[in-house]
Amino acid sequence: MIQTKNPIDVVFDANVIVSGLRSSKGASFCLLQKIRESDPSLKLHLSTAVVLEYEEVLLRELVPAFYQADQIQLFLDDLVAASTRHAQIEAFRPVSQDPDDDSLIELAITADVQALVTHNVRDFSTIRALGIDLLTPGQLLQRCNR
Q: Is the separation of the CB atoms in 53 and 15 below 8 Å?
């Protein structure tokens, strides 16, 4: 009998998405590829608020230097289709010092994920106390490849 491992349930900070779309040479890009290819080792969770935050950040950070706005929209459509979506999110505000991070933390709690993935670990110092791991993209990629 083939034994399959359970996927790692995660929420990505927008900076992981930006990093993965800026360069094809890092852990963030590899993680995005895993999500888009429905890799069984990883499951991304999304909410409307988080997708809207991604859209705002991606349009501000990547258009027009790297992508056109319609390319960002297509990417987000694909990302949403490949992810687990949550319509009902429990409100726990205020949780973080940055109100933009609250929607990520609320999603992580509601979806009961194992990890929140970010390049800015200091911004989410409270999440570990909630029983959620805080990982960089490189750390998550190592876990996926175990």
A: no
Task: Tell me the two tokens of residue 145.
Answer: 């490849």
Q: Which amino acid does the sequence have at 51?
A: V
The four Cα atoms 127, 132, 136, 140 give a dihedral, to 10 degrees, of: -170
* C-beta of residue 103 within 8 angstroms of C-beta of residue 10: no
DSSP state of 128: G
Across 2-6, 9-13, 97-101, the highest mean pLDDT is recorded for: 9-13
Helical axes 48-62 vs 99-111, angle rounded to 10°: 140
CA distance 87 to 81: 14
Q: Tell me what pLDDT residue 46 has.
A: 98
Structure letter (DSSP) for residue 114: S
Contact 44, 81 (CB under 8 A): no
In this predicted structure, what is the pLDDT of residue 2? 44
Instruction: Locate 69 and state its tokens.
Output: 């706005």
Say what the pTM is. 0.93
